[in-house]
Amino acid sequence: MGARIFAGWQGCDAGFKVARALFGCFLVGMVLRPAVAASQDASSRDQSANTGEDFFRPPTNLFQMMEQYRTAPGSGSTSGSLRDVTTETLNLRFDHALDLAPMWILALRSDLPLLARNPISSTNPDGDYLHGVGDANVQASVIHNLSQRFAVGFGARLIAPTGGDTFGSGKWQIMPIIGARYGLWEINSASYFEPIIRYDASFAGDPTRRNISNLQFAPTVNLGLPDQWFITFYPSADIRMNFGDPITGQTGRLFLPFDARIGRKLSDNAALSFELGVPVIKDYPVYNLKTEVRLNITY
Hints:
- Residues 1-12 and 28-48 have low confidence and may be disordered.
- The chain has 299 residues and is mainly beta.
- The protein has a single domain, classed as monomeric porin ompg (Porin), CATH 2.40.160.40.
- Strands 1, 2, 3, 4, 5, 6, 7, 8, 9, 10, 11, 12, 13 and 14 form a 14-stranded antiparallel sheet that branches.
- It starts with a helix and ends with a strand.
- The radius of gyration is 20 Å and the shape is globular.
- The chain has helices at 2-5, 13-31, 164-167, and strands at residues 61-76, 82-101, 104-117, 130-133, 137-145, 150-159, 171-183, 192-205, 213-224, 229-233, 239-242, 254-267, 270-282, 289-298.
């Protein structure tokens, strides 16, 4: 269904560039908006300090546009040496949170990635950029706020092989997730420690594609800064141990990057951020470089 709806993206360089240009213009417009001071009151759903990225304090609704640039070892060149493959992603995300009972929340999430990649293959021997839809996913999480300061949660993400051979893994994947949150109120109400662990495993799909089995970890620390700014260390679950089939360029199991995000809450319902990830150890080479720009709209 996703392939039919977005068939116009296939091989459509102009369409992808127009979408990116519109995204860029929207970001500029949001940056120029005046910031609105947020309340410092803490509650079980502290929306005053919420930028939309806090797993355990989800807003009722979130729409996110994320532009990612990533390079990683890919298929060999005509000379036989390894060649980096660049992937540019425009990801459209929608979240919805429901109060199940006092101190219990059900958080739902869906992602639709639109990709541009330049792999070398038998059908693309020159390594031209190709455009299409990646692997879409849905996620459900149950969150229990044990107190104003401490919360725990668990959930799972289901990833569908909608990206085909070029833009996806070719596998159905399930990703169980567990984590906790502890408010760092000694700093301010917007600061917290939020470790997340998840396991990505394939269970069906193309039998000729590699099996996926890797542990992912994010020891997230978010620090609220003056004037609605914030900085987050390890905001993404990019620390990984691979127990599945090896990928191109792999020499071991561990991928350990330095990963940080800096951003600003632009208004009561908008936040803009920039993330940078660079490898420290890349025996399991998830990426050589990762940059992300995110715009979150909460409502």
